[in-house]
Amino acid sequence: MKDGVAVFPDAKTERGRRHVTDLAKAEKEGYRACVIFMVQRTDAHVFAPGDETDPEFGKALRNAAMEGVEVYAYKMGISPDFSLLSLSSKLDVSL
Questions:
Q1: Mean pLDDT of the chain
Q2: Distance (Å) of CA 3 to CA 36, 43, 44, 71, 94
Q3: Nearest-CA neighbor of 67 among 92, 31, 94, 36?
Q4: Which of 9, 10, 35, 82 is least crowded, fewest Cβ atoms below 10 Å from its Cβ?
Q5: Domains in the chain and their CATH numbers?
Q6: How far apart are CA 6 and CA 73, in angstroms?
């Protein structure tokens, strides 16, 4: 988190890059492809790729979005005893 912006990843992620690249391939093959980021911070207002940590992931996510992959981010509510998870609210996505 920085100034209300939730970022992913917080470490380099080859797996994350591979997943969004695979989603772009699926979209090209005619499938509907979406990626959803679940943010466990109540103070987040926007989601963005963590370019400072892994610029290659940011590039892959932006390329996937340009290929038609839908990118969503939601705040996730968690009950005090962690027994219930829920979507709290949709966040703006800044690519």
A1: 94
A2: 21, 9, 8, 21, 14
A3: 31
A4: 82
A5: 5-93 (3.40.1350.60)
A6: 9
Token pair in block for residue 57: 């992931």
Q: Measured between alpha carbons, how far is 42 from 59 in angstroms, rounded to an integer? A: 27
Q: Give the mean pLDDT of 13-17.
A: 97
pLDDT digit string, tens, across residues 58-70:
999 999 999 999 9
Distance CA 91, CA 48 (A): 10
Mean pLDDT of the region 49-62? 97
- Whether 71 contacts 65, CB under 8 Å: yes
The two tokens of residue 95 are 């690519």
